[in-house]
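On clarity, I found the account of how folds are encoded harder to follow than it need be. For illustration, here is how one protein appears when written out as sequence plus C-alpha cells:

:::
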Amino acid sequence: MSNIVRWNPFREMAEMQRALDRMFEDTWRGAWPTAFAGNTLTLDVIETDTSYTASVAVPGIDADQISVKMHDDTLTISTELPQPALPENARVLIQERPYGQFTRSVKLPQPVQTDKVEATYENGVLTLVLPKMPEVQPKQINVKVGKLLKSQN
C-alpha cells in the first residue's frame, strides 16, 4: 500500500538550503587556521549534569589579553592579535597568520553560576568550567518503602 504525500515547496527549499550549507562548510572547513575562522574564535563546549566546559585555542596570546564575559546566559570570549611588525625595507612573501579582533559568543541553554566560573589558560588553550545553577541540575529522589495500610473489615 502506498501513501500519497503532499508536495511542500518550502520543505524542498529548506532541504536545498541545508545541502548548500553542508557543501560550503565542507569546502571551506580547511581554508582557515583551526584556532581562528574568519574573525571568530573556534569553540568546543561540552555539557555534564552539573556544568558546561568551554575550550578555545588562542595560541600566542597572554592570559591578560583575553576577555571573558557572561551576560544573560551568553558567554563571550574576545581577544586581539596584533599585526606583526615588519623590519624596515622588508616585504611580505607569505602572511597566513591571522591578526585583528577575534570574538565568539554562545548562548548557553541553562543558567550558570557566574560567581563560580573557573578559567584556566595553559599551553595556548583557554578552558572555562561554568557550573550550572543548582535549580537546573538533576536531583536524585530517594524512594522509601512505606508500610502497607491494613484494611479494617
Q: What stands out?
A: The domain at 33-135 is CATH 2.60.40.790 (Immunoglobulin-like). Residues 11 and 133 are 38 Å apart (CA to CA). DSSP finds one helix and nine strands in the chain. The mean pLDDT is 84.
